Predict the 3D structure of the following.
Amino acid sequence: MKTKITSGFWRDRLEVNAQRAIFHQWEQLEASGCIENFHIAAGDVDGFREGWFFADSDAYKWLDAASRIYASFPNPQLDSVMDAFITLVARAQRPDGYIFTYNQIHFPTDRWKNLQIEHELYCHGHLIEAGVSHYEATARTDMLAIARRAADRIVEDFLGKGTDHTPGHEEIEIALLRLYKITDHQPYLEMARQFIEQRGRNPLFALSLIRQNSSVGQRRNFIKQKKQEYLSAHPEFKPFQLPPDNASKQPRYSRLRWQVNALSGKYFQQHAPIRKQTVPVGHSVRFAYLETAVAMLARENGDKTLIHALEQVWERMVTRRMYVTGGIGSVPGSEGFGNDYELDPEYAYAETCAALASLFWNWEMAQLTSEAKYSDLFEWQLYNAAAVGMGLDGTSYLYNNPLTCRGGVTRKPWYSVPCCPSNLSRTWADLGKYIYSANRDEIFIHQYISSEYDGELAKIEIRSELPWMGKVKITVDTSVPSEFTLNLRLPSWCETESTRVTCNGEFFPVTPAPQQSEITASGYDPREGRWLNLKRIWNSGDVVELNFDMPIQLRQAHPKVKGHRGKVAITRGPLVYCLESIDNPNVDIFSVAVVPKSLEAVFERTALGGITKIIGQAKTGQPLTFVPYHLWGNRGESTMTVWVNE
Ligand code: FUB
Ligand code: ZN
């Protein structure tokens, strides 16, 4: 199956991704010393290792992104940077497959020492993913061979080992499952399964964490001292200058809450065996990577008990622990989940990577269950919680994503923890993968993104005006007339009465949204997403047209979410809107009250690359302009709010 994104909103972004973002990211990785670390580990140069212990992962994620981009935008310049980096990684890797520049440079005799904290397995995971992506994109096996050597090392060192041998930051599980998919090598599957099954089963977890924490501290002090010595010996050394960090407002007792979270194991999803993890807790990127891996594993082994746990934890997240943007992680101290309905818009951490991880998870769930709600959430997070992470220029990024900003948050070219930029780039580069799926007699259209798909049952072309306008045209091309079902997702945001669906001009009744017994905390409910099943004999040139009316919707938070009484979030189609100070001079965006009836959608070709704005009036008579949330912060420093008084 092959899918090509052809035009429109996403094609524009993919071009920026391929032409600017990926090269900018490489420059930053070089400038920040991340690539130099590999040269030091390979023995090419004598220098001082820079960056966090998990810095290697950013370089691997870059290679992962570059490979996926290369598949649709082949570019010799990109290819040669990738090649040079692959050769470098091969030289930095120990002959037995191990590679972790933090240990190799600072503690050459240590391995797998502080698994909960120091991200060794996480880094190996991203290395393996890069190997798989590079192979998938180029059919070459040089990077894949490096990945396999690393995976074999892990299997050798961990398979059959006890419950203390699990990673503190999930990721390796996804990597091993991806590697298994292309190699069919059973130990990779078994290793991933063991890592998943062993979580939350170590009765001495807290003790082990305390020991590791103290070891991490000692190692950090040792490095600090070595750095002082290095700086005295090398006065010419110029450290990389990062822009100042973005503000992240913290609720009270943040540190204490984080400590309790960590010691209980919740921060790491180590508090309970996987089938008992039915409430989303802890660090939200870790959480969603774990859930992704569990769903991938369940797709392999069909284990219903795993699927049941996945469904429960998803439901709890969506109903009580997710922002209206689809962002997850409301407690900055732990970069993770708070309590039910604890969704302060200003504290919101909602890291870009957490939204991306949730996309991966939801795609797996959609494949596992064929339920439309997962692709619904995918779409919502794609356009809001995730898309906000990259500026229109492709070279500026947001890491944490509050829904209210009173200042202090701007898009930055780089971060001291630059995990999000390449994660965005690799996900966008792979967007084609998330639009269609098929089985023997059905094709599912999950997303309305202008694209061409070449499947076994048919070729399909989508021309979509989303997210700005609601027209979608789908053309089917079959070599001979053939019977199958075309399943079209009716998004939760589309109203049954005003949506029109025709096939060759003939109207089809629109499936109503299923009723829910529990309203969501955020006011957005992906469970209202559903399928419209068109079963017929398809002929070449058959045309399905969907016309979504896209009215402006005012969403209210659950009454249990503090501080949201009398407020609404304005959405239209899959987009959440916000008030940004730059569009609303002389208006106090945090206290102004909107007149709902005054709101109208207007397409503006020149604004922010061409967008549908929402304009209206405040109760005071002042004009108001709302822009899509994902575009905020593209015009310099500003203040912003998603929730406004009604
Ligand atoms: O720790 C590695 C990555 O960096 C995490 O996933 C992010 O939350 C950031 O801390
Ligand atoms: Zn991130």
Notes: The first helix runs from residue 8 to 31. The mean pLDDT is 97. The pocket of beta-L-arabinofuranose (ligand 1) is lined by residues 54, 169, 285, 335, 351, 353, 417, 419 (CB under 6 Å). The two ends are 47 Å apart (CA to CA).
